[in-house]
Write a structure and sequence with these properties.
With 301 residues, the protein is an alpha/beta fold. Helices cover 37% and strands 18% of the residues. A six-stranded mixed β-sheet has the order 2-1-3-11-4-12, with helices on both faces. β6, α3 and β7 form a beta-alpha-beta unit. α3 crosses α10. It is globular.
Length: 301
């Protein structure tokens, strides 16, 4: 019987090769998970190890790593973006500045959502607003079941867009799927956000990471050559996509393959923000996050 590798990954131009009927790796055929939106694959991966290989949000991976989940991080960034524009208010609602959000209610799908991690980090770094001084109105629980949310996190019903429209929050953090699908223009709260995003990138030497590639640790230990071949296949597609664009935007610039200074910088800022916000509570380094990869595939951070 043919061997099958189960993979959960969103359909991007750089992951389309996974759906090619002729593609196999290490003698394994590919079985793609039906997870749409892709974040619906994250809880099954970190709670049940449902897939051999899975795209995973970096905030979810940080929490899973802290919880001891046997999942290995590969240095492949599948999605990312700047996020100053991800903090918005409803059209026609009262204007509010980022520095006035302390004491207010802000919607976000889950406190551990990666876009929320980046926005809270920006609010603290650039506007002096601490995550603990905002009430975070969420609609979903964390993917890692053992994670205990801070006391200023509330749960409500509906979508984050509904929360914003009915005035249950003065602002909301929306990730790319919700932001792209919003009906009508939401109003970014951070002024001159395009310039602020590029300034953030120049300051930190990276574009924020949203999703990376992970693999079950036992599969990596048993089949390092297969994982290496799959890793190289992802890398070839990412490099081809980046090379095809003469002036790539942030979402393409965010794509990364291999242990680079940009990748390590992005991981370190995510770690720093996560610790500051109690998304994780145990210090960790980028090298420790990539330890499984380094030991088995030999590219140190």
């Amino acid at each position: 019987m043919a061997k099958t590798l189960s993979i959960a990954a969103k359909s991007y131009p750089h992951t389309a090769f996974l759906g090619d009927p002729g593609f196999s790796v290490g003698g394994y055929g590919i079985e793609l998970a039906a997870a749409d939106p892709i974040y619906k694959a994250f809880a099954p991966m970190v709670r049940e190890l449902r897939y051999d290989v899975s795209e995973l949000a970096i905030a979810t991976f940080l929490q899973a790593h802290e919880a001891g989940a046997p999942i290995a991080l590969l240095p492949v960034v599948l999605s990312g973006d700047f996020h100053h524009h991800s903090l918005t208010r409803w059209p026609g609602s009262a204007e509010i500045s980022p520095s006035d959000l302390a004491g207010k209610r802000v919607g976000v799908r889950a406190y551990s959502q990666t876009t929320g991690l980046w926005v809270r980090g920006i609010l603290h770094e650039e506007f002096g607003v601490d995550a603990k001084d905002v009430t975070w109105v969420t609609t979903e629980e964390p993917h890692v079941a053992s994670y205990v949310e801070p006391p200023n996190v509330e749960r409500t019903t509906g979508r984050v867009l509904d929360v914003l429209e009915r005035g249950d929050a003065v602002a909301a953090v929306l990730g790319p799927p919700a932001l792209d699908g919003a009906q009508g223009p939401l109003v970014p709260i951070i002024p001159n956000w395009r310039e602020a995003e590029e300034a953030w990138g120049a300051r930190h030497g990276t574009v924020p990471i949203n999703h990376m590639l992970t693999v079950r640790r036992d599969f990596l230990e048993a089949e390092p050559r297969t994982v290496s071949a799959l890793y190289q296949a992802f890398g070839a597609q990412i490099e081809a996509r980046k090379a095809a664009e003469a002036a790539p935007g942030p979402r393409v610039r965010a794509l990364r393959f291999g242990v680079t200074e940009e990748l390590v910088a992005g991981l370190q800022v995510a770690i720093d923000y996560a610790l500051q916000q109690n998304v994780i509570r145990t210090p960790v380094t980028a090298a420790e996050l990539l330890d499984d990869f380094t030991r088995h595939l030999g590219e140190p951070a």
